[in-house]
Structure formats: structure tokens, C-alpha cells
Amino acid sequence: MENTVAQRIEALSKVQQIDSELDAIRKLRGDLPEEVQDLEDEIVGFETRIENLKRDLAEVEANIDQYRGKIQDFKKRIVYLEEQQMNVRNNREFDAITKEMEMLDLDIQVAQKKIRDNEAEEKIKRERVLSTKDRLEERKKDLSTKKSELDEIMAESEVDEQKLLKQREKATKHLDERLLRSYNKIRENSSNGLAVVSVKRGACGGCFNTVPPQRQADIREKKKLIVCEHCGRVLTDVEIIEEPEPAPKRRSTRGRKAATKK
């Protein structure tokens, strides 16, 4: 059977009350959940960076081995050419061999420079790996500390939180999906998490703008959902302010005093 407007308003108020209690519990945790998540993300980032540096190191080491291999090939070629130079038949052959040996010597110098460059890069990357590992260990220690703090707080509030979540699930069954979705959206856009408020001293309990008397009368009747025209929060009740009884007037004694003197 479809719930009446009054029942839906009552259910909304109940859900808001439960959510406010949940907010209070979660507020006790402060920024710890976000800090733990940030540290976990940072640790993943450091681990990825270390893997990338190790891969780069492997490439640099492979380059160094490659250039060293080339130098050995160049030197073997020079030894061979020196032997050939001893058996040349004319100056033209001698000059050609000499020129090739000079080119090979230049190739060796270039390869040696490449090796030095790669060794310098290798040193830098190894230092980065070590410094990143140090920072990674620091973050892991920080994460362990923050997790311990969060686990302790969670253990203290978990029972109450689970109890409230069950109550919330039960209360939301009295709300249709569209209304619950609207309620959640208002809560997300509210800085204090209040989507359902009462009218207090003639003003919205959320944004504190004045609520006209006619709208207050409509809210009291609970025949339709009324929202604040300024902030969009659902107005479910009007606070009744009892006017203090006027103090009894004191009788003037001036007349009595005048009569006594006579």
C-alpha cells in the first residue's frame, strides 16, 4: 500500500536523523580514511616508479654491454688490419688500411663516450631508485601508523554504525526511489549534510531564510512535501514557540500612601 504524505515525511525525518548520527560517527574519524587512501595511492605510485627505473636501468646496462661489445669488435678489426698492413703491395692499399684503422679508432672513441654517458645515467637512476625506496619505506611506516589509528576508531564505532545502517535500510523502505534519490542529492550539495529540516523561529533550519506563514501552515498540515524556496531542503515541521505568560501588574501604592496621610 502506498504510504501517505505524512508517513513519507516521517520516514524522511527518520532517515535524516539516522544520517546525522552516522555523520557524527564518521566525523570522529576525521581525515584518517582519506589520509590512508592517499598514502596507499602514493605507495602504489612509488612502487610503479621503482619498477620503471629498474626497467630503464636494464636498458642502460644493455646499452653499455652493447657498446663494449662493439669496442671489442673494432679492436679485433684493427688487429686484423695491422696484420694486413704488413702484406700490402703498394702505398694505395697501405693508405686505405690506415684510413680504415683511423675510422675504427674514432668509432672506439665514440663508443667509449657513449659508455661514459650511459654509466653517468646509470648512476643517477640507481640513486633515484635508492631515494625512492627510502621514501617508499617512510610512507609504508606512515600508512601502518594511520591504519592502526583508523582501525582503533573503527572498532569503537563499528557496532553503532552497523546498527544505524540497519535502521536506515528499514526507514528508506518507506520512501520511493525518486524521493530518496532527491534526498541524497540535496545532502551531497549541503555543507552540513542536512536535507530535511524544521522551521525554527519562522526561518528554514538549513539556510535560515524566512518561511512565509502560509507555507508554515501547509507544513503543519503534512498534506504535501514542502521545500525551502531558497535552499531546496525539505521542511517537515514547524517549531512551536510558547509565548511566556505576561507578568502580573503590580498595583500602585501611591494612592494608598496619600489616603494614609490624610
Indicate the structural class. Answer: mainly alpha
Mass-distribution shape = rod-shaped
Give a short account of the largest sheet: 4 strands, mixed
DSSP E strands, number: 4
H/E topology pattern? HHHHEEHEEH
Distance between the termini: 83 Å
Q: Averaging pLDDT over every residue, what do you get?
A: 89
| Poorly predicted spans | none
State the strand order across the main sheet.
Answer: 2-1-4-3
Radius of gyration: 42 Å
Please estimate the helix content. Answer: over 70%
User: What is the percentage of strand-forming residues?
Assistant: 5-15%
Number of helices: 6
What this model shows, in words?
Helix 2 (32-85) packs antiparallel against helix 3 (91-172). By secondary structure, the protein is mostly helical. The mean pLDDT is 89. It contains 6 helices and 4 strands, in the order ααααββαββα. A 4-stranded mixed beta sheet has the order 2-1-4-3. 72% of the residues lie in helices and 5% in strands. Strand 3 and strand 4 form a beta hairpin.
